[in-house]
Design brief:
single chain; 316 residues; eight-stranded parallel beta sheet; two-stranded antiparallel ribbon; 10 strands; 39% helix; 16% strand; binds zinc ion
Length: 316
């Protein structure tokens, strides 16, 4: 059994992630995750090893965020049916604190899965997303930096010295970049629409040791430009960094159908980037790849793109 599991992919999620209620009109809604999970019920995904996301611990979160920030977020538990606005588009409901803990906990569990070796890759199907959350600031639908918490866990729990997060969400991961910028043991590479929210991610933002690589793309850019940015800029730098673990901030809002931005990717482009990342992980990371869901706001395009991503993780 153990050998069979070593050939497969962990799918980590939790029903609590559906209880983060952003109201009836918010793009970052529970239906996003419902669509993804429903699509992953297809027979072809039976080989996934399904795991319930644990709660992230205070210790895990405070490797990234100040403790007073973590405790302040967790203390916001509105009455059922009510919401509290952290910023204009970042809302907390009764279930949000647990959802945020499960989302970060899923990313950490994915790291443990591939480091223990019982799975070769992992996909954390979670919300709220994480890549906009800065050390002490919730923003852009995000509370805790799920991918960065996972990267720090890999450093501290598993002693890794080179951990990379790559991010193909259409928005720049300002939070991950902020956390990684001055740590040469961490790599952050991102393609994203520019100009666009949150306004960071210029090519000149390169980190303390060129450990940050940004590939901004203009509104209207297609999959060809996306693939060129990765092939010419991000993947060569990632190859040089030679990560011992590859963490993916997997946002699918660069799809041409997505309502929040203006890139023009096809669903197939998400399969292409997944294949390239599997190659990097095979070359440097003993195949270890942990993918964490970020954005994606057209429900059908999100489900199609995420399932292609997971199908590729299963086959590659
Ligand atoms: Zn996004």
């Amino acid at each position: 059994m153990r050998e069979d599991r070593a050939l497969t992919v962990a799918l980590i999620t939790h029903p609590a992630c559906l209880e983060h209620d952003t109201g009836p009109w918010h793009p970052e809604c529970a239906d996003r995750l419902r669509y993804v999970l429903r699509a992953l019920e297809a027979e072809e995904f039976l080989p996934l090893v399904r795991e319930a996301a644990p709660l992230a611990t205070i210790e895990q979160l405070t490797r990234v965020h100040p403790e007073d920030y973590v405790r302040a977020i967790l203390a916001i538990v509105p009455e059922p049916g009510e919401t509290v606005a952290i910023d204009a588009d970042t809302l907390m409901s009764h279930g949000s604190a647990e959802a945020a803990l499960r989302a970060a906990g899923a990313a950490v569990h994915g790291v443990d899965a591939v480091m223990e070796g019982w799975a070769r890759r992992a996909f954390a199907a979670v919300r709220p997303p994480g890549h906009h959350a800065e050390r002490n600031r919730a923003m852009g639908f995000c509370f805790f930096s799920n991918a960065a918490v996972a990267a720090r866990h890999a450093q501290v729990r598993w002693g890794l010295t080179r951990v990379a997060v790559v991010d193909f969400d259409v928005h720049h991961g300002n939070g991950t970049q902020d956390i990684f910028y001055h740590d040469a043991a961490l790599f952050y590479g991102s393609s994203h629409q520019f100009p666009c929210y949150p306004g960071t991610g210029r090519a000149v933002e390169q980190g303390v040791a060129e450990n940050v690589v940004n590939a901004p793309l203009p509104p209207g850019a297609t999959g060809a430009a996306f693939r060129a940015a990765w092939s010419d800029t991000i993947l060569p730098a990632l190859d040089r960094f030679a990560p011992e673990l590859l963490i993916v901030s997997a946002g699918f809002d660069a799809h041409k159908a997505d309502p929040l931005a203006q890139l023009r990717l096809e669903t197939a482009d998400f399969g292409w980037i997944t294949e390239r990342l599997i190659e990097i992980a095979a070359r440097h990371s003993r195949g270890r790849l942990v993918s964490v869901l970020e954005g994606g706001y057209d429900l059908d395009a999100l489900a199609a793109s995420a399932t292609l991503h997971v199908r590729t993780l299963l086959q590659g």
